Amino acid sequence: MRSNIAAGNWKMNTDVEFGLSFIKDLHDKGNHDNCEVIIAAPYISLKSMVELKSNLGSSIKIAAQNCHLEPKGAFTGEISEAMLKSIGIDYVIIGHSERRQYFHETEDQLLAKIKIALENDLKVIYCCGEPLEVREAGTHLEYVADQLNGSVCQLSQEQLSSIVIAYEPIWAIGTGKTATSVQAQGMHHSIRNLLAKTFNEDTASSMSILYGGSVKPANAKEIFSQNDVDGGLVGGASLSVDSFYEISQSFPG
Ligand code: PGA
Predict the structure, then answer these.
(1) 54 C-alpha vs ligand 1 centroid, how far in Å?
(2) Catalytic: 189?
(3) Whole-structure pTM over 0.85, yes or no?
(4) Which atom of ligand 1 is least distant from the CA of 233?
(5) pLDDT tens-digit profile, the chain (253 residues)
(6) What is the CATH number of the domain that holds 170?
(7) Residue 253 lies in a domain
(8) What are 40's strand-pairing partners?
(9) What is the tally of structural domains in the chain?
(10) Which of 103, 154, 165, 186 is the most exposed place for a label (fewest CB within 10 A)?
(11) Atom of ligand 1 nearest to the CA of 234
(12) The pLDDT value given to residue 19
């Protein structure tokens, strides 16, 4: 069965000291038996966070927010997936809308990143989602299906077991405007149908699909209660241990 996941994405908001005290405080709050917890931190924090969580014996997983698509070479300022793996990173976020928008990352590049992540034994949180004008035009299901057809659907069935999909409508990210649980469920259901058609029912039902976009303690329960929503990718509300912990406790049953 697929796992429930609470993933935090700190973006470019935190320093090393913050990362360490967050991991310690989150660990002190107790076990997370009800879901897998992942924190995506800035590059500079990753190594010390991996070391700390290992020393604490914590099951928290550490993620990078990006990586380069080439294995090595003259790419000043970039970080390769092998480098991430070498310090014990578990996951990498690929295709966040901020990367697509501000760094012009294309679906082909994202697919290349996914493949090299998998070659390096990293798991991937692949983000997809439509801008406001697409939602208003009513073509959001097709838009997201195109994103997935160009990336995740190009993988083998075996490779899919290392992929988590995060649906993040761009109009809901950092805006305080969350998709309704019905809107989230509608998209997640459509994503799962696409996976079932491309692969098969078993593969589709074994994949975790997260919702992202202004998830907070006040709305997490309602969103996570939807059949095809398996957790959240949380930005702003993951910057406080208390609110992130509360979100991680919002899964049904
Ligand atoms: P938000 O960000 O929760 O602040 O809307 C989510 C994300 O970008 O992953």
Answers:
(1) 27
(2) no
(3) yes
(4) 9
(5) 899 999 999 999 999 999 999 999 999 998 777 899 999 999 999 999 999 999 999 999 999 999 999 999 999 999 999 999 999 999 999 999 999 999 999 999 999 999 999 999 999 999 999 999 999 999 999 999 999 999 999 999 999 999 999 999 999 988 888 889 999 999 999 999 999 999 999 999 999 999 999 999 999 999 999 999 999 999 999 999 999 999 999 999 7
(6) 3.20.20.70
(7) no
(8) 9, 63
(9) 1
(10) 103
(11) 3
(12) 98
Unique residue bearing structure tokens 């160009």? 150
- Nearest C-alpha to atom 7 of ligand 1 is from which residue? 235
User: Ligand 1 centroid to 9 CA: how many Å?
Assistant: 7
Ligand 1 nearest atom to the CA of residue 172, by list position:
5
136 included as an active-site residue: no
Give a yes or no: residue 142 inside a domain: yes
* Interval between CA 165 and ligand 1 midpoint (Å): 14
C-alpha 51 to ligand 1 mean position (Å)? 26
Tell the residue number behind the tokens 């006040």, with chain if given: 218
Q: Which of 52, 8, 70, 58 is nearest to 33 (CA)?
A: 58
Place of tokens 């790419």: 75
Please state whether 169 falls in left (phi above 0), alpha (psi between -120 and 50) or beta. Answer: beta
SS3 40: strand
Q: Which of 27, 32, 68, 96 is catalytic?
A: 96
Does 202 fall in a domain? Answer: yes
